[in-house]
Amino acid sequence: KNQVEQSPQSLIILEGKNCTLQCNYTVSPFSNLRWYKQDTGRGPVSLTIMTFSENTKSNGRYTATLDADTKQSSLHITASQLSDSASYICVVSQFTSGTYKYIFGTGTRLKVLA
Amino acid sequence: GAVVSQHPSRVICKSGTSVKIECRSLDFQATTMFWYRQFPKQSLMLMATSNEGSKATYEQGVEKDKFLINHASLTLSTLTVTSAHPEDSSFYICSARDTGRTLGHEQYFGPGTRLTVT
Questions:
Q1: Interior CA angle at A107 toward A103 and A113, to 5°?
Q2: Which of A60, B40, B61, B75 has the most CB atoms at less than 10 Å from its CB?
Q3: 8 Å CB contact of B91 and A41
Q4: A93 Cβ contact list (under 8 Å, min separation 6)
Q5: Cβ contacts (< 8 Å) between A8 and chain B: which residues?
């Protein structure tokens, strides 16, 4: 079964601290993996995208890693800011029957406190 | 670039009425648009996939007669919730696929529409 699992479900950290979010997937065939940030009451915004051959991708203070062998990804946030408070969603894209399908993780809700 | 808009952002309606939500790709053409529903503290659930000029493909368990989707142009798709009931209250998000770009045919998400049925 194609699944994307994320951990932890929620996380509270102090401003300025780093954190790492995890994503495990069992999607096949795999096309690419994306991390999205979703602010409360808003649509998801893409942070990073990685294909099978990429191990790491950075976007400012966000760094995503991908281990295609173990089917694991992580999103590391450096020097967190209050504005980082949001849900972070891992999405694996699957190419099947001639079309791309997104498989969504359940998300990690991050709260950054002053 | 790659902006997707939704209108309205919030809507409150009475039970039994119908509500239409618009999704527009502002600076690109989208042959395929997707409609998602998101309940509190849950992830996005795909409701249907619409292709311009053809009927939408609905996910299992989604009533096509209740959630009417029209994708009449390359920049506009609409979702009509017919005879809405309180259990239809949710956050509805659309996304548009820009088939003109590479890298996995990226989907761009709209800002969402909060529907409350009283």
A1: 160
A2: B75
A3: yes
A4: A30, A31, A32, A33, A34, A100, A101, A102, A103, B104
A5: none
